[in-house]
Design goal:
The chain has 382 residues and is of the alpha+beta class. It has four helices and 22 strands.
């Protein structure tokens, strides 16, 4: 049997050891340097910022008029259409005027008759007064003539009042708009008989300009609002997804009690609404200004992020990002008011924070950028 020499068993082991040692000691390739993170930046600013209370409001018409007839009759014409804008005094409906015209003719005839009787009584008084003074007729007979004159004169006044009332009734046959506003749906069509002060109106008119917005705020805010109102008129803004920009108004009313069930108090703002953007029944976002912070630090809302330990921002200095804890007081018009954590003039990241860590290098792609979301490759917002 063939036998190996002992030295033959040593050589493979030494060779493997040399290979392993050589592999372990060979130089390793170096890691590539980390690329700067592209970010958008904005500057921390110091300046006046309004103090605002936010709420949800409901638009209400200042006046809502149910138009009804004041006389009985047949509805002849309708001079408006559903939803038309109307002006005060504009003709809306016409009711058959012939019954009122006939009554007016009768009243004029009665006036003519009683005026003739009054004139006759006046002539008798004028004729018999000198005779009575000479005692050719008795005082009692003269008193009868004077009484007849007074009765005839009173009848004339009654007829004149009847003519005025009949003229008023005739005027009611033309129904006119009592206010400027917007008409709703016409509820009674021409040809129908209408009654005076019927339960059902002919139509409803809502006053659109100016208009009210009612809203509620926490009861704890009443003192602050009343104190601010004592210094002057408070500005109110109404906004919504489809308003095409905020509408400006002013606070017009604070309710005299806090609702104990909800701990809120009702307020009402008045808006000129000349462009009729606000519509009765619409829900809007309300911003009530109750003062101003004259010297506040603020950054775009997009710069502030929330973490496990609270809010933070990334401050950029010399191309390096540093995470900084901040305290946010409130947000106004897309900017966050900070009471601690940053200084005026420092630069903060508004876009790209998700890829940043403490000490990361940054590459600025947009300085002082707006906080609006950027569009992705498809053209839609992320």
């Amino acid at each position: 049997m063939h036998r190996f020499h002992p030295s033959c068993r040593i050589r493979p082991t030494l060779a493997a050891t040399v290979v392993i040692w050589a592999t372990a000691c060979s130089p390793q390739p170096a890691h590539a340097p980390t690329a700067p993170v592209p970010v958008s930046l904005a500057t921390v600013t110091r300046g006046p910022v309004p103090e605002r209370i936010a709420a949800v409001g409901t638009v209400e018409a200042i006046n809502a008029i149910a138009v009804k007839s004041l006389v009985d009759g047949q509805l002849l014409d309708s001079d408006i259409h559903d939803g038309n804008s109307v002006r005060k005094g504009q003709l809306l409906f016409r009711i058959d005027p012939r019954p009122a015209q006939a009554a007016l003719a009768q009243a004029h005839a009665a006036l003519a008759r009683d005026a003739a009787a009054r004139d006759l009584a006046q002539a008798q008084v004028n004729r018999y007064r000198p005779i009575a003074a000479q005692h050719y007729i008795s005082a009692d007979q003269m008193q009868q003539y004077a009484t007849a004159l007074e009765a005839a004169a009173a009848s004339v006044k009654v007829d004149q009042a009847n003519i005025a009332a009949t003229n008023l009734t005739l005027g009611y046959t033309d129904i006119r708009a009592p206010i400027d506003g917007r008409a709703g749906r016409i509820l009674v069509q021409p040809g129908n008989l209408v009654k005076a002060n019927d339960i059902n109106p002919l139509l409803t008119i809502n006053q659109i300009a100016p208009i009210y917005v009612s809203f509620a705020i926490p009861g704890d805010e009443v003192t602050r609002v009343r104190a601010a109102q004592a210094k002057g008129t408070l500005a109110v803004r109404a906004s919504g997804d489809r308003l095409q920009g905020p509408a400006s108004g002013s606070l017009a009313f604070i309710d005299n009690a806090v609702d104990p069930a909800t701990n809120t108090v009702k307020l009402r703002a008045r808006f000129a609404n000349a462009d009729e953007r606000l519509w009765p029944g619409q829900f809007v976002q309300i911003a009530l200004d109750v003062g101003r912070d004259a010297d506040a630090l603020s950054v775009p809302d997009a710069a502030v992020k929330s973490g496990a330990n609270g809010s933070y921002v990334f401050v950029v200095a010399d191309g390096i990002a540093h995470q900084r804890a901040v305290t946010v007081a409130r947000s106004v018009d897309g900017r966050s008011l900070l009471v601690a954590g940053v200084r005026a003039g420092e630069t903060v990241v508004t876009d790209g924070q998700s890829r940043l860590t403490e000490g990361a290098k940054v590459a600025v792609v947009d300085a002082d950028a707006a906080a609006a979301p950027r569009a992705d490759a498809s053209g839609s917002a992320p």
